[in-house]
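Review form for a predicted model. The reviewer records the input and the model, then writes brief findings.
Reviewer: anonymous (R2)
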Amino acid sequence: MNEAATRADSTVRQSITVPADALVALVARILIGAGLSNDAASRVARSLVDAELEGISSHGVMLIEMYVERIRRGSVSAQASARIVSDRDCSVVLDAGHEPGQLTGNRAMVLAIAKARQFGAGVVAVRHGFHFGAAGRYALAAAEAGCIGIVMCNTRPLMPAPGGAERVVGNNPIAIAIPTEGQIPIVLDMATSEAAMGKIRLAKEAGQAIPPTWAVRNDGTPTTDPREAIDGMLLPAAGPKGFGLAFLIDLMCGLLSGGAAGADVKPLYGDPAIPYDCSHLYIAIDVAHFCDLSTFRAAAARAAERARSGRRAPGITRLFTPGEPEWDRRQHSQGQVKLEPAVAMMLVRLAQELQVSAEPLSIARTSRKESDHGKT
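Model under review:
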């Protein structure tokens, strides 16, 4: 680490709020410096910052350091390398070639929607994939096109079977979005663990304890230490229900694509020279093949409003539908992103290593001035 970066690291002690568009530009510059094309870097950067705006920091810019290291070491392709290996009626198999997952996700859902227009439903299975950020953005793309969108992905084993003491399945995420009227989307986006690994990593960086229901040690005993949780096992959401859902997601993604499942998916934060090699599944269902789209949207909106306006328990001021909390946080963000000190320091350091501007982080400007001032 150079002298300026060291000074930056020692100075950042509080969270920093920056304009989202400026943060997108910074993250894109870092990715371009690592070898991505301008277009690919912009797409990946936008997905990460969108997650920040929605309060999903576990899928936000904290990931950029791992992305960059994997690009440097060759386990993530710097090129848009996905290719179609099978195209039959409503189904497509896509080999992602270890490109950034955001590029794969965008292309796969476009293909699924096109198939749904023709056949009523489109299914795209992906092998040799990489981390794609928040699954909900791809499901929402289908909903905005008048389709029901379903997206899932597998990860390396992180969770035990109920009562088990070894990792057998990942906390495989699933997202479902449906068309609706109005601005508030209806989208479920969830990991199948009680908490995402990204949240535990954030707790570790912040020096915070985690709830005892999130993870267990390697011997199966509960822990509140995020370090022990990372070394141990995540717990499935709702016990056997979450485990069963995760297990089936793993099989559908891996078996339909002809790609990796179970332990064949490698650790995301493992050896950066070894491809992550996960599998994805994207499904689009064209509502118009089943019923009138306007009628469907209106009915979905009414159902959502009934849920929001229902009777509340004591002390509860507001009820939410799936996806509404994230939408609400984005509306209240006013286009600003709050970065924790560790994340801000990491971005400054990467920008300096790759010799790109660290704007809009004011600490970057300060550290450069201090470094220049010290020269004789």
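Findings: Residues 83-193+236-294 form a domain with the Ribosomal Protein S8; Chain: A, domain 1 fold (CATH 3.30.1370.60).
Further findings: The chain has 13 helices and eleven strands.
Recommendation: see findings above.
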